[in-house]
Design brief:
The chain is mostly helical and 156 residues long. The protein has one domain. The protein contains seven helices and two strands; from the N terminus they run ααααααββα. It has a two-stranded antiparallel sheet with strand order 1-2. The longest helix has 38 residues.
Length: 156
């Protein structure tokens, strides 16, 4: 399977080529050229659909990854990119490079992601403590998506 980076490059390159060809020959396209444009547009749609599927898979599986990792005191980005990239790939299907590309493209709103991660961890702690389990009793910090805060800040 091709990587996310290659899929995005294909979309950009084909989109540019289609726009250029349409601009050059707005009315005088031959049947063969129209067919080539149509096939290129189908490929772009297919690549976009593949990227959407990867993002949906990421969105539905990131809570599982957060639950499985023991690196709670680090930011999620650091856990994914540095500490447990192999676990991340097994759980989400995205490679470390795919995730880094999505981050570089600003796919994730950092403020919303931090909020979601902290809420997940608060919920996880509450449900574990209800069952009498304190999995993180010696920790003093908790990581969000891209930040790390103290436990006191998390429960304020």
């Amino acid at each position: 399977m091709r990587s996310l980076n290659q899929d995005i490059e294909t979309i950009i390159n084909k989109t540019d080529a289609i726009k250029k060809k349409r601009k050059e020959h707005e009315e005088g396209l031959t049947t063969k050229e129209k067919k080539e444009l149509s096939e290129a547009e189908k490929e772009i749609k297919s690549k976009r659909r593949q990227i959407q599927e990867k993002l949906m898979k990421f969105a539905t599986r990131i809570p599982i990854f957060m639950y499985l990792t023991d690196y709670r005191e680090y930011s999620l980005k650091d856990v994914i990119l540095q500490l447990e990239p192999a676990l991340f790939e097994r759980v989400t299907g995205l490679t470390k490079q795919d995730f880094a590309l999505l981050v570089s493209l600003n796919v994730f709103n950092e403020a919303l992601m931090n909020d979601a991660v902290y809420k997940f961890k608060r919920y996880e702690d509450a449900s574990l403590s209800y069952a009498g389990i304190d999995k993180h009793e010696n920790e003093t910090k908790v990581g969000g998506y891209s930040t790390v805060i103290s436990l006191e800040e998390l429960f304020c």
